[in-house]
Design goal:
Number of helices: 10
Number of strands: 8
CATH topology: Rossmann fold
CATH class: Alpha Beta
Structural class: alpha/beta
Number of domains: 1
CATH architecture: 3-Layer(aba) Sandwich
Helix content: 25-40%
Order of helices and strands: EHHEHHHEHEEEEHEHHH
Low-confidence stretches: none
Distance between the termini: 45 Å
Mean pLDDT: 96
Length: 333
């Protein structure tokens, strides 16, 4: 199949409440992770894989789903449950290992799951949730529902076995799975160009005879429209789509005390160039320029989000850690 370019539908009218909610969720991810960054370097949280800079592709994709649709994440996934509408306090509590966390404090930063929002889990094992997403798609098919599963993974996972196995099986059975590659250009410290023979991950869709689409991951509306089209196709029985969102992480692969001493592996000009395409700034500027948002509304939304994040921090600090007798609970035996 021919590689496609995902674009926003410039003719499409969108409700202001939808647009404002997109902005709100993007700001929630940004402010939440800024706070996590501070807490990591102050010793409250051990480490965190942050997605600052990638907010548009997360929110655009998640908001193309229904609440009952499924989603799987990866190791850089604080933002995915937030993008799907999860409350911040239980997420922050999980990062601090508290019993009020989404996994009762036993999962931590890389293993968040919010079943009430369709988030089936995340994992630090690269590519490991791709077969889970296929299983969710198969479940929807067998149960006769029209649910879909959105599977997030990074460019590094595209070179792992589960990528090929999952796309092949989903394509054969025409399962309702949207595979979304968050290509931020680096697998840990290694540039994409040094690890992958094709210029775009989306080109690999041709091997499975499914659509392959490239989209600007800094444009929330382009991602939303692209994923929405893939969701419509999947619900109608058309099978999976592979979408590659070109994006960038502003921070390190992982944040932890000492990470600042890692030798520079990204060109300064490259980092400056991507920061000039900040997804929140791009979207808020567009909203104001089209009359969909007043400057004071933006400041109000941001202020409310900051209060929400601080309340989440206080909630986490006030919550108790798991007790020894809880060690064997929640295990499948």
């Amino acid at each position: 199949m021919e590689l496609q370019l995902g674009q926003r539908d410039s003719e499409r009218e969108r409700p202001k409440d939808l647009l404002h909610e997109m902005l709100r969720r993007m700001l929630r991810i940004r402010v939440f992770e800024e706070r996590v960054w501070t807490m990591v370097y102050e010793g409250e949280i051990n480490a965190g894989h942050l997605a600052m800079g990638q907010e548009a592709e997360i929110v655009g994709a998640c908001m193309a789903l229904r609440n009952d649709d499924y989603m799987t994440g990866n190791h850089r996934s604080h933002g995915h449950p937030i993008g799907k509408g999860a409350e911040l306090a239980p997420l922050m509590a999980e990062l601090r290992g508290r019993t009020t966390g989404v996994c009762r404090g036993k999962g931590g930063s890389m293993h968040l799951a919010v079943f009430s929002r369709g988030s089936l889990g995340e994992s630090g094992i690269v590519g490991s949730l791709m077969p889970v997403a296929v299983g969710a798609g198969l479940s929807a098919r067998l149960q006769g529902t029209d649910q879909v599963c959105l599977c997030f993974f990074g460019d590094g996972a595209a070179n792992c076995g589960p990528f090929h196995e999952s796309l092949n099986l989903a394509a054969i059975w025409k399962l309702p799975v949207i595979f979304l590659c968050e290509n931020n250009g680096y697998a840990m410290f290694t540039p994409y160009s040094q690890t992958t023979s094709v210029a775009h991950v989306a080109q690999r869709a041709a091997a499975y005879d499914i659509p392959g689409v490239i989209v600007d991951g800094q444009d929330v509306l382009a991602v939303y429209d692209t994923v929405s089209s893939a969701v419509t196709r999947a619900r109608a029985g058309g099978g999976p789509t592979l979408i590659e969102a070109k994006t960038y992480r502003y921070g390190e692969h992982a944040e932890y005390p000492g990470a600042e001493k890692i030798p520079r592996y990204r060109p300064e000009e490259e980092m400056r160039s991507w920061r000039q395409r900040d997804p929140i700034e791009i979207f808020s500027t567009w909203l104001q320029g089209t009359g969909n948002l007043l400057p004071e509304q933006f400041e109000n939304i941001r202020a409310c989000v900051q209060v929400e994040v601080e309340r989440a921090v206080l909630f986490a600090r006030d919550s108790p850690p798991p007790q020894p007798h809880e060690l064997m609970e929640d295990l499948l035996t």
